[in-house]
Amino acid sequence: MRIIITGGTGLIGAALAQNLAQDGHEVVILSRHPDGRSLPTGVRAEKWDGKTAAGWGHLADGDDGEVAIVNLAGESIAGAGFPPARWTPERKRRILQSRLDAGQAVAAAVRMAVQKPKVVLQASAVGYYGARGDEPLGVEDAPGQDFLADVCQQWEASTAVVADMGIRRVVLRTGVVLSMAGGALPLMALPFKFFAGGPLGSGKQWVPWIHLQDQVRAMRFLLENEATSGPFNLASPNPLTNRDFARVLGKVMERPSFIPAPAFVLKAALGEMATIVLDGQRALPYRLQEMGFTFTYADAQAALADLLA
């Protein structure tokens, strides 16, 4: 199968691309700067502008075999630098527009294809639900009303039209992906290395985490299982509060975990973006498990021990 991945150079996309290529699939990642990239065997990069199907749309036509598209593209919510850049009105516009542009490009490629792709996997996040306290959240629950919830709703809707074309479409509402190769975990672990780790804010907010290996396995499961469609929460069945997550992280790293980072300090440093660490969602993978998926790392201590070994 030919699998086209937008956002294929990010943490999740790169891991998925390598996993698929190892199984003999033809993997194409779309990149603004494809030249000079070091890619795994079996993965190639095609140039795209991040906005249209120009230059790559023909690859979505399955006239010589089955095609799937995995749409992960979008400007980073937290940014690439440290400390993270604040959510200025311009940054918020780019965060949303980059996702809408990518979704519209995917929809255009599918529309042009004579032999349509078999499936489109559309990225989203558990931020779809907004800040909901201790409420257990399944995919049937209503969206939130904050900035991230609005971004997720529009992100999901950006490729909704492909379902009207008869294409199976799966929406991936992903939690905090744990990996030492990038994402949140290296930043979360950093203060613990200096014996200064602990809960963030009240520590009562939920952390809907998932090991990168299970993230890739779940995406493969949804890609290949033709009975699946619609939204799925990609998060461990055992989320932890931030306080408990800090305790487990400290235990695995053999460091104390009692030095809190007060909410007012985080808000002063990050502004509105502090919601990423101060609010959480108790998102649960009910539907994913009902479809038959099993987690390799359902327990946070086992997941962190594997990643930090």
Structure, described:
It is a single chain. This protein is an alpha/beta fold and 309 residues long. The protein has one domain (2-308): NAD(P)-binding Rossmann-like Domain (Rossmann fold, 3-Layer(aba) Sandwich). Helices cover 36% and strands 17% of the residues. The chain has 11 helices and 13 strands. It has helices at residues 11-22, 89-112, 147-157, 161-164, 185-193, 212-224, 242-253, 263-270, 275-278, 286-290, 300-308, and strands at 2-6, 26-31, 43-47, 67-71, 119-125, 136-137, 168-174, 176-178, 206-207, 209-211, 230-234, 240-241, 282-283. The protein has a 7-stranded parallel β-sheet with strand order 3-2-1-4-5-7-11, with helices on both faces. Strands 6-13 form a two-stranded parallel sheet. It has a two-stranded parallel sheet with strand order 8-10. Strand 1, helix 1 and strand 2 form a beta-alpha-beta unit. Helix 1 (11-22) packs across helix 6 (212-224) and helix 7 crosses helix 11 (300-308). The longest helix has 24 residues, at 89-112. The protein is globular, with a radius of gyration of 19 Å.
